[in-house]
């Protein structure tokens, strides 16, 4: 009989289980890290039109309030204000955005967190409905043509309660959302808040 | 011969038998089964499925996917890469281990930006990747057993002259 070779595809069980377990360990690790800290780094949200930020209470430090004009979802230049804070602790945070699906239906994406802590917050708001209190508030005017330098408002601490803010841009250097829940719901029509 | 060596030999024999059985089942098989035999078919198929599932969420949120810095864009990237890796696993079976490792890595990372296709995509990706890693092509050699036995039984000095290399030299 002549010597000959044939090839057969085969799955090695030992290799499979090692790879399988390694994959699940990595998955457990990454979910564990997110679950424990609820942390996402450098999270910007913007350029998609208005979205709504609601919370019960916010306590921030090194607050800066700058008027500016900026792009919104349906306009190139609209007057708005930029809020800057070094750090902020928020309770009962609720961010939501209405999106139109290709089918024509509307959905609302909710992000809810019972408590959140943020470092390096920058937020551009078109409309703010809230109770505000400041410490060491200073309002400064400059003879400048630059709208962002013309008039500024600074405070060492700020406390905002029962807020509804129509936001167009949000940036956080570091955000920790404890017990965050993300959900979607169908809605009949989008929410429109006019100032 | 030590016990360990015997066990190893037994294992090898069993594996060879298993492969032979598989080979025999392949002989009368159709074209598709033969094509499947030459590549990590189930690994690649599950990888493709995982890629589609990972892509599902970014496709639903495409309205915000292309905003600079949006994590949804990362979901698109991971889903697309998993699809490409799955397709490549069909055509380059020799690299199946590498494709498997990449699939597992991307599937786990797809939790960010695409929620791993509601986790199901990630789990299917891990299974598909593991199947790709575990897949290999084994060679079965067919030799005439009777010939082998005869050579083994004869002592060196009794071998025919034409086979004796020292004399030929």
From TrEMBL, chain A:
It comes from the Bacteria. This is Uncharacterized protein. It holds the Pfam family DUF6230. The chain crosses the membrane at residues 16-36. It comes from Salinibacillus kushneri. Keywords: Membrane, Transmembrane, Transmembrane helix. InterPro entries: DUF6230.
From TrEMBL, chain B:
It comes from the Bacteria. Residues 148-169 are annotated as: Disordered. Keywords: Coiled coil, Membrane, Transmembrane, Transmembrane helix. Residues 2-29 form a coiled coil. InterPro entries: DUF6114, MFS_trans_sf. The chain crosses the membrane at residues 41-59, 71-92, 98-127. Residues 149-158 have a biased composition (Basic residues). It holds the Pfam family DUF6114. The keyword Transmembrane helix applies. Signal peptide: none annotated. This is Uncharacterized protein. It comes from Salinibacillus kushneri.
């Amino acid at each position: 009989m002549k010597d000959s070779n044939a090839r057969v595809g085969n799955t090695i069980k030992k290799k499979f289980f090692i790879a399988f377990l390694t994959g699940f360990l990595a998955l457990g690790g990454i979910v564990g890290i997110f679950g424990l800290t609820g942390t996402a780094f450098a999270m910007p949200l913007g350029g998609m039109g208005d979205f709504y930020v609601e919370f019960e209470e916010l306590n921030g430090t090194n607050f800066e309030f700058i008027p500016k004009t900026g792009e919104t979802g349906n306009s190139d230049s609209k007057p708005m204000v930029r809020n800057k804070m070094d750090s902020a602790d928020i309770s009962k945070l609720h961010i939501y955005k209405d999106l139109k699906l290709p089918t024509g239906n509307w959905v609302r994406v909710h992000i809810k967190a019972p408590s959140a802590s943020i470092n390096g917050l920058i937020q551009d708001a078109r409309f703010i409905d809230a109770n505000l209190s400041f410490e060491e508030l200073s309002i400064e005017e400059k003879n400048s043509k630059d709208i962002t330098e013309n008039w500024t408002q600074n405070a060492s601490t700020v406390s905002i309660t029962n807020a509804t803010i129509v936001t167009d841009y949000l940036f956080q250097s570091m955000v920790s959302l404890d017990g965050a829940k993300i959900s979607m719901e169908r809605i009949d029509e989008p929410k429109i808040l006019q100032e | 011969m030590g016990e360990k060596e015997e066990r190893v030999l037994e294992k090898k024999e069993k594996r060879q038998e298993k492969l032979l059985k598989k080979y025999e089942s392949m002989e009368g098989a159709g074209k598709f089964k033969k094509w499947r035999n030459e590549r990590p078919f189930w690994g690649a198929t599950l990888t493709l499925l995982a890629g589609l599932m990972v892509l599902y969420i970014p496709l639903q949120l495409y309205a915000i996917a292309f905003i600079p810095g949006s994590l949804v864009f990362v979901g698109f990237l991971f889903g697309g890469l998993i699809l490409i890796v799955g397709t490549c696993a069909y055509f380059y079976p020799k690299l199946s281990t590498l494709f498997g490792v990449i699939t597992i890595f991307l599937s786990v990372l797809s939790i960010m930006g695409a929620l791993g296709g509601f986790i199901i995509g990630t789990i299917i990706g891990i299974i598909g990747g593991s199947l790709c890693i575990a897949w290999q092509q084994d060679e079965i050699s067919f030799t005439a057993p009777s010939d082998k036995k005869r050579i083994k039984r004869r002592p060196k000095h009794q071998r025919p002259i034409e086979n004796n290399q020292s004399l030929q030299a």
